[in-house]
Inverse folding.
């Protein structure tokens, strides 16, 4: 469970730097992954984006200081990384729903968000249907959009991207490309480097790349494949969260940092519900070897 220790160490670094610059690169390095995957993992495990977590923690500490010290609002704003009273006021109200000045009044209601601590939690209930498979290099072809660093923003953009592909009639063309495993229409999150991460809607294929589309090569790997029945959007997000919080800590594997693959049935319009799969690259945990 080394990944859990690294994730906790990254949070410790963030907590130690709430009143100074927080380097996402350094936090991700402590966690042992790229900035993109660190933010992605954090959002699924914590249930909020990394940027929102930092904002809540800083505004929690700022509220404590407003109430217990006589420091000027602008000084507290600068301490927590806000260069203007306006931006600090906006951030403070987004968390506490009152102004920093009002927070000093007796009887003001504020919100305190404690630091997150990652621990293994034993949960009972619904089983996760999965299988492990080894795959040679795979090639995906499709259309894509760039992803943002903020996972919350990505979760807003991706449904709109599916809709635009559906409205454009591209599903027929993408479906026709599918001639390799995994079959179906694929949603693939690919990190290629800083400022180069994309979400693809495509198919696994060896055919030529049509004009206006892109190809992505995925190396041979071991995959944990999770099967789902029901509404795609809700189930896919739930799989990623349960993978990080329930499956991975006890599996003897670690996350491989490969593209994550969502597999949907072939159709001529935006898929909404039915049978789907989530493919997540894994490798054996050296600590447990």
């Amino acid at each position: 469970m080394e990944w859990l220790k690294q994730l906790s160490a990254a949070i410790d670094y963030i907590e130690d730097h709430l009143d100074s610059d927080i380097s996402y690169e350094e936090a991700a390095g402590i966690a042992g992954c790229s900035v993109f995957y660190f933010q992605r993992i954090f959002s699924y495990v914590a249930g909020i984006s990394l940027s929102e977590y930092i904002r809540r923690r800083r505004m929690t500490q700022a509220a404590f200081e407003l109430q217990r010290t006589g420091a000027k609002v602008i000084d507290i704003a600068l301490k927590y990384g806000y260069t203007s009273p306006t931006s600090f006021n906006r951030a403070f109200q987004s968390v506490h729903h009152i102004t920093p000045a009002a927070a000093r009044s007796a009887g003001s209601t504020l919100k305190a968000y404690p630091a997150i601590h990652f621990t293994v939690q034993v949960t009972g209930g619904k089983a996760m249907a999965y299988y492990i498979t080894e795959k040679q290099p795979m090639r995906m072809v499709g259309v894509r959009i760039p992803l943002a660093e903020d996972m919350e923003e990505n979760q807003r953009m991706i449904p709109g991207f599916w809709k635009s592909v559906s409205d454009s009639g591209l599903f027929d063309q993408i479906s026709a490309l599918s001639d390799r495993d995994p079959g179906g229409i694929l949603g693939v999150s690919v990190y290629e480097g800083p400022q180069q991460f994309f979400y693809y809607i495509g198919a696994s294929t060896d055919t030529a790349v049509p004009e206006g589309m892109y190809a992505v090569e995925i190396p041979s790997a071991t995959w944990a494949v999770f099967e789902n029945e029901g509404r795609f959007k809700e189930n896919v997000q739930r799989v990623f969260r349960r993978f990080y919080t329930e499956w991975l800590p006890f599996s003897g594997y670690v996350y491989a940092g490969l593209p994550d693959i969502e597999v949907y049935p072939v159709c001529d319009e935006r898929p909404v519900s039915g049978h789907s799969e989530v493919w997540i690259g894994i490798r054996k945990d050296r600590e447990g070897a």
About this structure: The chain has a mean pLDDT of 87.
